[in-house]
Fold these 2 entries.
Entry 1:
Amino acid sequence: MRVDIISIFPEYFAPLDVSLMGKARERGILDIRLHQLRDWTRDVHKTVDDTPYGGGPGMVMKPEIWGEAIDSVVAQGQRDQQAHQGHQAHQGGVEGGMPAVLPRMIVPTPSGRPFTQEVALEYAKEPWLLFAPARYEGIDSRVMAEYGSRLRVDEVSIGDYVLAGGEAAVLVIVEAVGRLLPGVLGNACSVADDSFAPGAMANLLEGPVYTKPPVWRGHEVPEILLSGHHGKIARWRRDEALRRTLEKRPELAARLDAGSLDALDRRVLEEFEGRSSRGSSGGASSDLSGGASSDSFRAGPEDVAN
Ligand code: JAH
């Protein structure tokens, strides 16, 4: 996947050299290109902002500079594609070329569409993303209008708070998307098992996790996890996920889709809901499945050590 980022603070993206994202870039799975927005200014002061029409506090980013920057980054990306295609045609003997790919443009803003795991999965299918993080009060809206008719433009929000600029949101989105790209994570199963992953984990938080030693400072690892009963372990994890979601994110639990719940899930939910509506919290864990293992939450390959 190619990622272009245009910002007045390209240094802000140094963390993308580290850890999983750094490895993905070394392996060529993620091709990230950083661009300094001020490179497209023409005045000695490299001005990117101006006062807002209609008055009010703060400054707004000038449309001409963004327009020049986006046009030039898109044009360069298309030349890179053609060079790559020409190389492929030369190797494979196929001429004629493929349809030109345009980037999906992403503009972080508190007023955008919520960025969720579902959106991350959608972006992970794109060959090319172009991020336009703003500073000040944002970018002149005509930039989104202009490119909305030329590319696909998404204004997205990573949460209901205001940052000093869109850069931190870009880091969040690139990491959430990057880890979904084929070959980035060692274990393909871990993506399907994530909190919020569509399917069995949709609108569910993951439960608690443990490693050795079996007792640490008097705190024991739940016995079931040491039992080797993969079916019972899968069911226990499911119960813990349901319990945690009801307790910490009741609004998520309310969106649990009946189609993704089995009979035991429903029993577990009723039991926990009854308990929490009586005001008790942190009650002792009990085996609501009665030791039964359901069809949908039996042990899968991801539950077995590898
Ligand atoms: C702040 C430009 N959803 C989080 C978020 C995203 C972007 C911004 N703030 C919060 C932001 C100032 C200027 C973007």
Entry 2:
Amino acid sequence: MASIKRIGIITSGGDCGGLNAVIKGVSREAFSLGIETAVIPNGYAGLYNLVDLENVVFLNAERVSKIEASLAGSEAGHSRVKISKIADPKKYDRIKDGLKKFNIDALVISGGDDTGSVVVDLSAQGIPCVHVPKTMDLDLQSYSVGGDSAINRIAVFARDLKTTGLSHNRVVVVEVFGRYSGHTALRGGIGAEADCILIPEIPVDFDIVYDHMKTTYIGRVKRSDVKSGTYIIVVAEGITNASGEMLYDESAGVDAFGHKKLAGSGKFVRQQLEKRLKRDPEITQFMKDTGMYAPGVYEVPEVREVVPGHLVRCGNSSAYDVNFGYKTGAAAVYLLLEGKTGNTVVDVDGRKIYFEATSEVIKRRGVDVSEIALYESLGFNFGRKPEKFNRVFEEVTGAVPRHL
Ligand code: F6P
């Protein structure tokens, strides 16, 4: 067992639900073992500058009790700084000096793929550290804290938008975070019973989206005794068209990790639908038949995009994320004590702590599109011609992977 007297806690990348539970899990478990914990503020920016700090916050029992695990965000703060990109040839020495200054023996670092790559890097530099998976994008190989909270929030937003959509007979497009993976858009969209869900894993055919929208929306308005209908599309920020081109606003720039900021997919979807609505003579007839047509003012149904942005990852943490955060945070302490630097806590199941090399866990995982056909048979549209669900059966004889 490694001799560890003080652990530093870092949260990095985009904040999300469940992180405060991770922090509490680390500090409470460490406390029970007689180990101190300290917050290294603001992600890797704070780690780089630790040596210049006058003091750090120690998470003693009283300080920890002030952290509310059910609130999203992180008491430790965040930044999107990748250590290897810092223009300072002495950066690793500087980090080691900072850790020495505050007698910090090892680190628990919670974050996504970029954060995890730094865990691999720091570990190789001889800094003992372990990783707790965190990202609302759910694009790691393991479950990551924050995913479930984001899914639930997306589901609530998309469902709530139906009331205003129905009142105005509008088509509503909800653009959600998720980067290059559609996990949260898919699960949140199904949770809201959205009509159409567009994800990066499936190139979008806008003619198909339009046809599904037109049939569904018109049918709803016509069947309604008060002539009311809406159509809800949940679109991930990282979608592509049939030629594989990403449909986002190039002007958004890049973040500190050097990634393109994705934004604008909702606007793109709206424009594609508006274009088709305007040139479709059946729409004019529909507006007249249903008593909505007002020449020059209201000739086609309106399409609106809503971009909840950071609202999908703030506010409350789901109970699932609080559970997962607490137990993986606590397990990270044991991983450090076992000297398993450069590893990620994948899960805790019963008395087993599952872990895997961080370099493996951070490999991007997309939505398994073979599952999509099942939802298509249930009536959801994914911007492609529905496919047949090619089911296979497998009897479970042992543990099954359980992440969302
Ligand atoms: O990686 C998490 C995430 O929420 C992405 O889904 C999104 O593209 C990005 O962070 C937004 O980052 P920021 O808060 O830095 O704008």
